[in-house]
Amino acid sequence: MREATPEDLWELFTATYLTPGRTGSPGDSVDALVRELAAAGIKAEILELTTQDDAAYAECRVNGATWWGASRDTPVRAVLSAVNRALASVPLSP
Question: Which domain of life is it from (predicted)?
Fold first, then answer.
């Protein structure tokens, strides 16, 4: 596994949010995020994704461990919350 570079994150962001004419459901966006994370060397699997009122909750398996994330915004951000928590738990190599 390698750390995502700023360029990787920008490409992921633009592909997910700024692609002209992109339409679809939140599930499509989450699937696109998972594909882009995989391309960056981060294996993420959505185990459960729940939305309630103005919140989203995600249970994800990230690189083999289970993590949870939440967002007051979108399901994509809930997944990113879980992924960020997982990556923050891994010490960076020098």
Answer: Bacteria
At 26, is the pLDDT very low, low, confident or very high (cuts 50, 70, 90)? low
Query: Three-class SS string for 51-88?
Result: EECCEEEEEEEECCEEEEEEECCCHHHHHHHHHHHHHH
Sheet holding 55-62, edge to edge: 44-52, 55-62, 65-71
In this prediction the pTM is 0.68
Q: Which fold has domain 6-88?
A: Double Stranded RNA Binding Domain (3.30.160)
Instruction: Sketch the domain layout of the chain as residue ranges.
Output: 6-88
